[in-house]
């Protein structure tokens, strides 16, 4: 069970650090079942920023050289890369959202219900579907195999597979999940697909699974072109906030101490603080009970750790809608609300709807983007390999 607290995330980080070097490089692609020691298990904490990417990389590099821990550090930066890439192409997310809504509202394709219930007759797929639903996690290599079999063997829409993952993964986020599925299907890197094979699965599961009857060809899917990429927007200036400032945290970033420390002397005294989340916004079909419960636990933990200038604990808002935020802002007589910047995804959609509502009430919404993102995202304009060359410089900064 993954405990949804910052303390548990830091404990997991401490336990993993000794294995982040040669051990991780050697064993990371193997999946021998749900009891795993060859991977960190940190992704649910990093995804919600209960523990930040900078904390993870700093802890690993305190123990290992960048050369020794290169593979693990690159895995941390993969999430950053995906977010930066999608930030420059938000229409990819919008189209995916629209396609999922359309697919779920219509007649579901043959085989879909069996696939998500673990009844395909492919033993590996069925075990992985059950593991995902039961635990909220799948090994990264398994995610690739699963997506490949879903698209090329079962012939199911990739969007429904991505939606299935996003509803059930504790670490599911808009960028990593959507773009990874697109990559398997040959849409992300045009024409380059990923084909799951019996031999590869048998090798990296130590013979636990060796499914037969898999597709032997992975022909890339096609789609209408997207608009050109747009530059990463400039950071907002938090020093322009008013005299009554509230901090509003959300499920994309639940570590307020380092966020506020980034502001330095320009950090305003907080008149009040609140935490809000809506895990069900991941999909038109909502989210699993595991995801909802993990998110609620993370919110409760964050509220207990977050205080206003007088030492008062943060409020947990009972709704993520604009009305609840407006009521909280009015009760605190706020003229400004600070929020962590939310990358492209459901939370950004919520904040985009909230901003004009707050403006109408005379309250300014100011998004604070972490330096980690501001420094790295502009380099995510092309493929990962040009981005990878930037990692040593980003780590030094």
Structure commentary:
The chain has 397 residues and is mainly alpha-helical. The chain has three domains: 101 residues, Serine Threonine Protein Phosphatase 5, Tetratricopeptide repeat; 104 residues, Orthogonal Bundle (DNA Cyclobutane Dipyrimidine Photolyase, subunit A, domain 3); 131 residues, Rossmann fold (3-Layer(aba) Sandwich). 49% of the residues lie in helices and 6% in strands. It contains 19 helices and five strands. Strands 3-2-1-4-5 form a five-stranded parallel sheet. Helix 5 crosses helix 11 and helix 10 packs antiparallel against helix 11. The relative contact order is 0.13. Its cofactor is FAD. Keywords: FAD, Flavoprotein. This is Cryptochrome/DNA photolyase FAD-binding domain-containing protein. InterPro entries: Crypto/Photolyase_FAD-like_sf, Cryptochr/Photolyase_FAD-bd, Cryptochrome/DNA_photolyase_1.
């Amino acid at each position: 069970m993954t405990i949804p607290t910052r303390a548990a995330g830091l404990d997991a980080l401490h336990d993993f650090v000794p294995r982040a070097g040669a051990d991780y490089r050697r064993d990371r692609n193997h999946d021998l079942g749900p009891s795993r020691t060859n991977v960190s298990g940190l992704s649910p904490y990093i995804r919600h920023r209960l523990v930040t990417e900078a904390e993870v990389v700093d802890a690993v590099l305190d123990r290992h050289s960048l050369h020794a821990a290169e593979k693990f550090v690159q895995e941390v930066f993969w999430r950053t890369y995906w977010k930066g890439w999608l930030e420059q192409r938000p229409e990819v997310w919008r189209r995916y959202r629209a396609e999922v809504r359309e697919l779920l509202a219509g007649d579901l394709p043959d085989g879909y219900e069996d696939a998500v219930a673990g009844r395909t007759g492919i033993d590996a797929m069925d075990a992985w579907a059950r593991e995902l639903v039961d635990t909220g996690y799948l090994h990264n290599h398994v995610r690739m195999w699963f997506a490949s079999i879903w698209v090329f063997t079962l012939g199911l829409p990739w969007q429904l597979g991505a939606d299935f993952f996003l509803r059930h993964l504790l670490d599911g986020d808009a960028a990593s999940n959507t773009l990874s599925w697109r990559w398997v299907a040959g849409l992300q890197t045009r024409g380059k697909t990923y084909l799951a094979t019996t031999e590869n699965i048998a090798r990296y599961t130590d013979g636990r699974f060796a499914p037969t009857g898999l597709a032997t060809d992975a022909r890339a899917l096609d789609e209408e072109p997207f608009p050109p990429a747009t530059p990463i927007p400039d950071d907002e200036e938090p020093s322009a906030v008013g005299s009554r400032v509230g901090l509003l945290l959300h499920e994309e970033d639940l570590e307020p101490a380092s966020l506020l420390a980034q502001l330095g002397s320009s950090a305003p005294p907080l008149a009040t603080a609140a935490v809000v989340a809506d895990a069900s916004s991941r999909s038109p079909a909502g989210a699993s009970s595991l995801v909802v419960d993990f998110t609620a636990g993370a919110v409760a933990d964050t509220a207990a750790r977050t205080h206003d200038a007088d030492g008062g604990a943060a409020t947990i808002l009972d709704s993520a809608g604009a009305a609840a935020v407006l009521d909280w802002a009015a009760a605190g007589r706020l003229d400004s609300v600070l929020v962590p910047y939310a990358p492209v995804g459901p939370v950004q959609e919520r904040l985009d709807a909230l901003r004009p509502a707050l403006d109408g009430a005379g309250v300014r919404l100011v998004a604070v983007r972490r330096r980690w993102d501001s420094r790295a995202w502009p380099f995510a304009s092309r493929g990962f390999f040009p981005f990878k060359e930037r990692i040593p410089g980003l780590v030094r900064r």
